[in-house]
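Structure first, sequence second, as always.
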């Protein structure tokens, strides 16, 4: 039998790229950061190495994230990053792989084409797209083929995708440009306003992961951080508490909850009844902020569950969807 290249599922996230290979599972998990030499245009580092360089590079080297708010902001850098990851996953394969890539639910045709072109240029034989909430639902173990409503809230790095899924497709969906990155920005702004100290993206992310919360904690936690004092221009050490993180993060968290509310309002009554019985599933790294599930449950009155492997859900779902690639190809040929 004629053997093709591998089938790969890629969760092309704003913060992280996760790759799934059919038959092997998740084989790669790297930050979506690329370090480029401005003078030569050469890629110096990709993934973890490049992430270490964020905010620490000399003038000629730029460490950037080529995806912003779920879509490609720098086409050439995205293509180079994809090429690097595909080569790492495939090694030297005779045939180019078929690739399925996740995209936010409300992207434009131009943005879709940019993803397909970048993956094709990076070495894919054929590119398929799948909406993030559908991939997240499959990855969370929900049977989406049945005629009953399931609500998925996928909070990534750049976008929050909310969808009500029934019979394998989205009935009502919404995509919001408020997610992990906006939570980090809110922390940077809060520290600057309250302490007159500037901190970097990575410090803000560490704060969010370690002591961030959007629901009052029983025990107040604290963490020491360093930043630059705007008054003196010198480095300064601060002790920040989780109660302050609650103040900083509540605004973007409420924007996500309002968007969920908006989708529920547009949901047909039969499906709304199903969601009320079955609950809301949360996936993506952003849903792991302490108390977000409790806050959503309190505001909607519906049971909220965080998927088992929330960060990898979308990649796992894409991987499971790879099994149907031959069916998709057969449909196209027909």
């Amino acid at each position: 039998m004629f053997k093709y290249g591998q089938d790969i599922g890629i969760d092309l996230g704003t913060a992280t790229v996760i790759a799934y290979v059919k038959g092997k599972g998740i084989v790669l998990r790297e930050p979506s950061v690329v370090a480029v030499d401005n003078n030569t245009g050469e890629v110096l580092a990709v993934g973890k190495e490049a992430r270490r360089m964020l905010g620490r590079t000399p003038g000629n080297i730029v460490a950037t994230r080529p995806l912003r708010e779920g879509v490609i902001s720098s086409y050439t850098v995205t293509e180079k990053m994809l090429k690097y990851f595909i080569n790492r996953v495939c090694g030297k394969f005779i045939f180019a792989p078929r690739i399925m890539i996740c995209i936010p639910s409300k992207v434009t045709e131009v943005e879709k084409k940019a993803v397909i072109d970048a993956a094709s240029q990076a070495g894919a034989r054929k590119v398929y797209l799948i909406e993030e909430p559908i991939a997240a639902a499959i990855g969370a173990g929900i049977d989406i083929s049945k005629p009953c409503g399931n609500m998925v809230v996928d909070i990534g790095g750049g976008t929050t995708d909310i969808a009500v899924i029934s019979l394998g497709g989205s009935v009502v969906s919404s995509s919001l440009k408020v997610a992990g990155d906006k939570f980090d920005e809110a922390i940077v702004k809060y520290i600057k306003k309250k302490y007159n100290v500037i901190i970097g993206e990575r410090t803000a992310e560490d704060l969010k992961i370690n002591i961030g919360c959007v629901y009052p904690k029983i025990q107040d936690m604290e963490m020491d951080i360093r930043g630059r004092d705007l008054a003196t221009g010198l480095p300064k050490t601060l002790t920040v508490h989780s109660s302050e993180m609650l103040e900083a993060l509540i605004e973007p968290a409420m924007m996500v909850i309002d968007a969920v509310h908006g989708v529920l309002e547009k949901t047909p009554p039969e499906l709304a009844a199903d969601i009320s019985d079955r609950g809301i599933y949360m996936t993506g790294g952003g849903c792991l902020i302490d108390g977000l599930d409790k806050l959503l449950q309190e505001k909607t009155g519906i049971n909220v569950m965080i998927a088992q492997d929330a960060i990898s859900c979308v990649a796992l779902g894409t991987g499971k969807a790879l099994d149907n690639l031959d069916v998709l190809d057969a449909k196209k040929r027909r």
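Margin note: The radius of gyration is 21 Å.
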